[in-house]
Amino acid sequence: MEAISKALFWVANSLLIPDIIILLVLFGRSLLLIGSFYNQFMVKRRNERELKDKIKNLTPSSVDDLKNAVPEKDNSLFIKYLRDLLTTPQSEAYSDFLISNFENEADKDTSLSKLLSKMGPILGLIGTLIAMSPALVGLSTGDISGMAYNMQVVFATTVVGLVVSAVGIITLQFKNRWYAKDINNLDYVSRVLTGKTQRL
Question: Which contiguous run of DSSP H or E holds residue 26?
Answer without folding.
Answer: helix 16-56
